[in-house]
Structure formats: C-alpha cells, structure tokens
Amino acid sequence: MSISQTEQGSVPHKSIVAVVVETEDSRLLHEAASLLNKIGKQNKDPEFIVCFGSHGVDIRSAAMPNKKGQMVDFSTIDRRTGSGNLSRKQLFPKSIGATSKTIVDATAGFGADSAMLACMGFSVIAIERCPLVSVLLRDGLHRALKDKGLCMALKNVLTFIEGDSIKELIRHKGVDVVYLDPMFPPKRKKSALPQGSIQTLKAVVGYDDEEKTQVLFRTAMDTALKRVVVKRPNHAPLFAKNPAAVHKGKLVRYEVYKPNR
Predict the structure, then answer these.
(1) Which residues of 11-39 are buried (b: 16+ CB within 10 A; e: fewer)?
(2) Measuring CA to CA, how many Å separate 39 from each of 36, 43, 50, 69, 82?
(3) Which of 39, 90, 158, 207 allows an S-S link to 154, with CB 3.0 to 4.6 Å?
C-alpha cells in the first residue's frame, strides 16, 4: 500500500466545520479523532460537515446535512489508454515530459491530477496542507486500493503527504518534475461556475496567497531536475517569465519552466 503521512501543524482551514461520526470502523474513528485534534473546537455554526460513515468520508454543506457530499473517488477516472484519458498524447502528460518518471504534486487538492498521472505510470507524491482535504484523500486512496483494477494502477506509485509544500519540496529535492495548480481568485467578473468539487475545495480551503505561491514556485525551481509545470486558466497571465513551453487547451494551459540547474 502507498504510504500516507501526516504532519502536525498543517495550515488551518478557511471554513467552520463540524465532525460527525456514524461508523465503528477503527480506521475512520482514528481519522476523525486526529482531525478533531487538528482543527480544534468550533464554536460557531458550521458551514460544512465532515461525515465519517460506512461509505467512507465526505464533506457536505451544513445546510443540507442529510445529502451526501463530496468524496475523493478515484473510481471515476477514465482509465482507457490510447485515445482515452490516460493517453500520453494529451496536453497534461506532454507537459510532464516523456522521460520524466517522478513527480511531486505540491498542490494536491482532491487529488484528481495526481491520480491521473499515477494511472499513466508516473510515480507521484502529492502534498496537501489542509487537514480536512487530507483526510478525504487518505480515505479515497484507501477505498481505491480495495478495487483490483485501481490497486494495480495506484499501488506503490501514489503517495499522499499532509504538510507544508515548501518544506516537503526541500525534502524531495531531485524529483524529475514539480507540478503546481494554485487556486487564485477569478480575474473575470463573469465566468462559468466551476464544478461542484472545485467549488467545495475553494470554500473550504480558500484561495492561495500569491506571494506564498511565488515562494513555492521558486522552491520548486530549486527542487526539480527536469521541469516545473504550472497549470493556469487561459485568461490568466503567464505565471512567470520565459516558459520553455506552453501546452494550451480550450480552458487551461500547462506552462513548462526549466529548473535552476
């Protein structure tokens, strides 16, 4: 099984949450207790509920406590090769590079990009700083490894770490690629709402601080051997000067930067 780690002192979440436990599963009881220890007592009315139940862990709106919320579910990945989602001819894996083998995803979020890269055969370490999101990631990976097909695809090649990305990048210096997908406030006043999982992620975690993200980028440039890849919406300006390549899709692009070597 891939290793899941936690680091005390993870950054606090943005929203007020409540933890509800509806299971006797020892793994989930431990996760719930650990989460409560990290987030502390919540005195105000919660905006979200983190539910530990027989199905696993989900995060839902406190306004709709009986409606199943967002889970990390890697079974939804389209694992077709060739012209399917796992084709290395797509823009995302092209930006990672054909000769790259090891990747650190320093902004894991709900882990979709990390899991996709792992299913393509890359070895991925994904870092998430928010305890609320991290518990969802660990639960999603735990359930995925019970599925025969997903287990073959993800076992020993996908690892989630809860902690500060800058500190973890220093520990993983020499990885082939560092991948960044920072969440900045939208620049356009009128734009389509993002999909539900992304809306939830932004509501829970908030947006990334631009100054800290620049520090993360510079650390990534000192960490990676081959390239740093930054995912950006097409309407946004370049993240940094002089990218080595830009792989542009309909909505997003992947900017490739040569590390400091």
Answers:
(1) eebebebebebebeeeebeebbebbeebb
(2) 5, 11, 12, 20, 44
(3) 158
Neighbours of 96 (CB within 10 A): 24
What are the phi and psi torsion angles at 54 (to 5°)? -65, -25
Contact at 8 Å (CB) between 105 and 133? no
Average pLDDT over residues 53-74: 89
Q: Which residues pair with 61 in a beta bridge?
A: 48
- Out of 1.10.10.10, 2.60.40.3390, 3.20.20.80, 3.40.50.150, the CATH code matching 4-10+71-257 is 3.40.50.150
CB 160 within 8 A of CB 111: yes
| Tokens 């800290």, residue located | 212
213 pairs with which residues across the strands? none
pTM as predicted: 0.87
The CA angle 130-149-133, to the nearest 5 degrees, is: 5
Q: What is the mean pLDDT of residues 168-178?
A: 96
pLDDT for residue 192: 45
What confidence tens digit (pLDDT) does each residue in 4-19 have?
333 333 445 556 788 9
Tell me, rounded to whole angstroms, the distance of Cα 20 from its chain centroid. 23
CA angle 44, 108, 170 (to 5 degrees): 110
- The mean predicted confidence, pLDDT, of the chain is 86
